[in-house]
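Hypothesis: this fold can be encoded by more than one sequence.
Test: take the structure tokens below, design a sequence, compare later.
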């Protein structure tokens, strides 16, 4: 016991202080090391913040608040469908004598310049989309260009130096598609001059949704045929895909980032399409075995699409399936003449059975045929029954002047898998659907179907004589909406934008309109303008700065 007490005292006297001092030393060393690590991390954070601030400052720095764009005037004898046009990297302003719809206006230039901006993304060919997404992007291309034009007109209003001139801007656009915006400005409900964050957000939301709603109401029907033609061209070159959400959103953000603001973020909802043919193309993209000839099959489907309206509700699914089957059959036979088919009817029969084999084994066909939305949405007004259902179905198989159904053994338009699953066919071998399950065609027959006919040479119709008059390259200044001028413009940047717009405003209206006689008379009465206007092409374009200099001396 005494020995243990002595040993315990020894430990307390000699080892405890050493242990404690060791722990204290380690603790102090750890604290110092951690402090050094923290200091290093803080320095790294500080340097990174300086770097990021520098990058942000460089990104926010507006290099060109005013954009100088080139265009050409093209004098036409008669009014056309376009006032201004962007195509293949060029902007054209048309000039029709004494038709002041074609007058010189900056928002129209901004509209076409924004098409140029959107075109640079190569959105029509570089990326893959579903038919609906591609069609909607064609619409957004126009809507965003209208928004760019409206923002340019807004800058014209802001640049007006007096209340009287601001009222003149409001009156200028009161009978245009911009009316919805400038009416709100006139009543004070929208305040473009306000620096209040709430007013700014309110205006941006109104600009985005107001422009979209206005365009859908006024212009969507007008553009429908040209957009559908673009869709067919796109499908022919790129094909049909089933999903494109990522690509769609990327291009949408590109189109609507105007003046640095992404107006797509302000949309309350995206476009809801009602175009039958586009929704039909969307459905075709879901059928796996019909993708190979996407564009051709789509064209054939559209030719017979009106026949859907001849059947009643009770036969809609059957007639839609026959439309798809007959279109696929015509596509497979597209390189055969009517004479070849009459001499070899077995080709039609085997092609039909090959298609039916796919119909019964490819579930995607049944899923589309059973859920086709247009049959319920757009055809709900049709009669209940159609006694001529079979006759209507037979019309779908008319091809190059012959009835393909006469070459198909025991053809019946009702023999389609309306409520049938492939697995059930094998559980019930008596099921008539097995009648169509034939083996693959022979290699010889496959090769025969692939032989292409020599293209027919169709003589070109003589072009109508027209006398376009293209001017030399002209230039005009616009607010540079490619840069973030709505977010980071300095007072100096805004001063440059306003100066350019005020210079344009000073051009006498006679030179913005389309009356060459009136322009000539004005020049004769104001001969001191001749030097600055000597290159004037009777199309409304002027060298602005020299003109202003002469104009100021005349006052």
């Amino acid at each position: 016991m005494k020995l243990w007490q002595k040993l315990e005292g020894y430990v307390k006297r000699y080892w405890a202080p050493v242990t404690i001092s060791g722990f204290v030393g380690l603790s102090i060393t750890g604290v110092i090391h951690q402090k050094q690590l923290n200091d290093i991390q803080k320095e790294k954070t500080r340097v990174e913040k300086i770097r990021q601030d520098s990058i942000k400052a460089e990104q926010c720095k507006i290099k060109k608040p005013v954009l100088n764009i080139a265009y050409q005037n093209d004098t036409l004898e008669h009014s056309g469908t376009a006032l201004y046009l962007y195509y293949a990297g060029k902007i054209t302003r048309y000039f029709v004598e004494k038709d002041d719809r074609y007058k010189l206006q900056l928002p129209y230039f901004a509209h076409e310049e924004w098409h140029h901006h959107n075109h640079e993304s190569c959105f029509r060919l570089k990326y893959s989309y579903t038919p609906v997404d591609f069609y909607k992007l064609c619409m957004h291309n126009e809507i965003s260009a209208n928004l760019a034009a409206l923002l340019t007109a807004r800058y014209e209003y802001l640049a007006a130096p007096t209340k009287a001139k601001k009222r003149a801007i409001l009156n200028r656009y009161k009978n245009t598609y911009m009316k919805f915006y400038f009416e709100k400005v006139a009543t004070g409900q929208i305040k473009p001059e306000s620096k209040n964050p709430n007013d700014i957000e309110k205006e941006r939301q109104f600009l985005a949704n107001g422009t979209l709603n206005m365009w859908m109401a006024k212009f969507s029907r007008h553009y429908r045929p040209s957009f559908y033609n673009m869709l067919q061209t796109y499908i022919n070159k790129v094909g049909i895909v089933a999903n494109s959400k990522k690509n769609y959103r990327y291009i949408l953000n590109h189109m609507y980032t105007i003046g640095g603001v992404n107006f797509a973020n302000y949309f309350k909802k995206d476009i809801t399409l009602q175009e039958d043919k586009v929704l039909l193309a969307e459905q075709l993209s879901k059928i796996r075995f019909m993708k190979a000839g996407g564009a051709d099959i789509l064209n054939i489907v559209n030719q017979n699409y009106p026949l859907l309206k001849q059947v009643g509700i009770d036969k809609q699914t059957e007639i839609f399936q026959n439309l798809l089957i007959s279109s696929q059959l015509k596509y497979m036979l597209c390189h055969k003449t009517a004479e070849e088919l009459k001499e070899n009817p077995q080709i039609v029969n085997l092609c039909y059975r090959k298609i039916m084999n796919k119909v019964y084994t490819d579930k995607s066909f049944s899923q589309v045929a059973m859920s086709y939305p247009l049959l319920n949405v757009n055809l709900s007004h049709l009669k209940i029954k159609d006694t001529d259902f079979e006759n209507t179905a037979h019309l779908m198989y008319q091809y190059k002047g012959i009835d393909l159904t006469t070459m198909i053994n025991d053809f019946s338009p009702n023999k389609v898998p309306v409520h049938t699953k492939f697995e059930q066919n094998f559980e019930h071998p008596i099921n008539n659907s097995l009648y169509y399950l034939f083996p693959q065609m022979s290699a010889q027959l496959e090769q025969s179907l692939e032989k292409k006919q020599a293209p027919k040479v169709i003589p070109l119709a003589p072009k109508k004589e027209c006398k376009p008059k293209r001017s030399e390259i002209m230039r005009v200044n616009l607010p540079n909406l490619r840069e973030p001028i709505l977010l980071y413009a300095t007072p100096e940047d805004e001063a440059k934008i306003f100066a350019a717009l005020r210079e344009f405003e000073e051009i006498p209206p006679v030179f913005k309109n389309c009356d060459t006689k009136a322009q000539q008379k004005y020049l004769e009465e104001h001969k001191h303008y001749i030097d600055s206007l000597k290159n004037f092409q009777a199309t409304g374009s002027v060298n602005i700065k020299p003109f202003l200099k002469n104009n100021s001396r005349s006052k």
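The longest helix spans residues 2-60. Residues 375-380, 418-439, 535-541, 544-555 have pLDDT under 50 and may be disordered.
Hypothesis status: open.
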